[in-house]
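Thread: "does anyone have the structure for this chain?"

Original post by V.I.:
We have the sequence but no experimental structure in hand. Need at least a predicted one for the grant figures.
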Amino acid sequence: MSQREPLLDRFIRYAKIDTQSSDTSTTYPSTEKQKDLLRVLVDDLKAAGLADAAMDEWGYVMATLPSNVPADHAAHGKVPAIGLIAHVDTYFGVTGADVNPQVHRNYDGGDIVLPGDPAQVIRAADETALAGCKGLTIITTDGTTLLGADDKAGVAVILESLWQWQEHPARLHGPIRVGFTPDEEVGRGTEHFDVKAFAAAVAYTIDGSGLGSLEAETFCADTAFVTVTGADVHPGYAKNKMVNATRVLSAFIMALPQHRTPETTEGREGFLHPTTISGNPSEAKAQFIVRSFTEEGLHELEGVLRDTAAFMEKRYPGARVAVEIKESYRNMKYKLDAEPRAEAYADEAIRRAGLIPEKMPVRGGTDGSRLSFMGLPTPNLFNGSMNFHGKKEWVPLEWMEKSVETVLHLMQVWVEKTGERG
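Reply from O.Q.:
Generated one for you, tokens below.
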């Protein structure tokens, strides 16, 4: 077996590999360079003792760590296979090329100036979580790129956990399935994921944020497409003839309730959010993301879009306003409630790591949202990263270590609870 690599060094090695995904590509993965890290991970998994590690035609890497539960243990042969999943791609909106991680040892509690661009400063006053990080080792970007801790911190945590089990066989675990995926950042991370082949009863994405977070509830999400068809004529002779689709679409957007936008909502409040707009006087289009924590709330917001479309057709005679809805994902809670062990055992593991679980509804989605509805209940555990999707991203090494500790406890909990159940 190869020599193990310290967690910090491993994370930095992964962070330096450019795996930025693309939200405009039609290929899968959306960028071929994601496979640069995925191929590395096949080798790293084999080095950690997972002999069956392999990458499939879509770029998914899967591997197995067999159970080490002794034959005389009450849980022998009964512990279900549990999955550990992380994505390798980084956010499409900020460059992931030439990442230059900075290691700030013994953080002094003040602002962190990023040397590649002094205008980029992680200000302690803005980052309340930094208050608890004095004396820790914090990894940042140099200010010119993102760091990629979302989710390369999760990838590194999983590899470190695998090495811990190899080196400390007294830490009991059942069968563990490992999965590394591409394209999570563009919402396509599970597009070709073979749940049946993965063969786990429950899985955990190691893709959460701050210390101790456990996410078992996400938005329900749809995408709405609004198309306005107008009547275009020469503008010099347009009186009482032209119906300008761009004007109608602008009025449509401004007629929507302004208290139901991302800028005006928080907690469990849903929203309507126009993300793209294009067109001309003949035809104009807008794309919206629709978010709510319940399907009922989602349908209510979509009803607002349809009602506003009908109102615009009356206000602008001759205009046609069509609304098309495409389902994106649903709140994982609907499925996790049917497998309560997934969240309960994670809660216990976080507590055993000496932390208080931070349970907040995710104002977004995870691969676990779709996987849960594909038949694989998948809550989201923290990897310690903060400020993801930006150049001011940061992650304390000690928080990553706590994530590792939590994962180790989690598998022990599954063994103990399965043994108790007989």
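V.I.: this helps a lot. The first strand starts at residue 54 and ends at 55.
O.Q.: and The chain has a mean pLDDT of 95.
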